[in-house]
Design brief:
Blueprint (H helix, E strand, L loop, with lengths): L1 E3 L15 E2 L2 E2 H11 L6 E4 L3 H8 L5 E4 L7 H11 L5 E6 L7 H10 L5 E6 L2 E2 L3 E4 L3 H4 L9 H5 L5 E5 L12 H9 L1
Amino acid sequence: MLLAAGISRRWGEGNKLLAPIDGEPMVRRTAESLLKSKIRPVFVVTGHERADIEAVLRDLPLSLHYAADYADGMSASLKSGVTAAAALDGVLVCLGDMPFVRPETFARLAEAYTGQAAIFPTHDGKRGNPVLLGRSLFADIQRLAGDEGARTLLKAIPEQVAEIAVDDPGILRDIDRPDALRDTLDA
């Protein structure tokens, strides 16, 4: 699932997910990378500026889901995505503001899944995103509130969380402010 519902409060003017990277909107670049991994189905959770986000993704083979309560924070997006993925054994949670994650990283996470509560990628010993969340967490995710992600849940069950080392610095690069985008493009 690709989370693309946030308000981009730290970005300033405009919606960061629509900011161009190499001539295409950030969220589209992220979606295309995910689609190159062959992971299916791909759910996209929209919210803030829904019409604009959906317009830049419309021609891609995605399933769009609107989180009407997106202003409540990350938990609203996660709950919407987990509801859409209810029939699956797990869900790969990708962030729309992480356009530099490589397709092979998505695939490695999916291949490593054997029923763990979660799998994080690591690069140079640091945990990054996306994270694969197992079905065992779906009910607990539905009880989250506010701008809370699954990290709180995972801290309570460290023995059920796996890590997989990847050669992908993109897992550590999220774009929250315009200067981060400039720094990333310069790197």
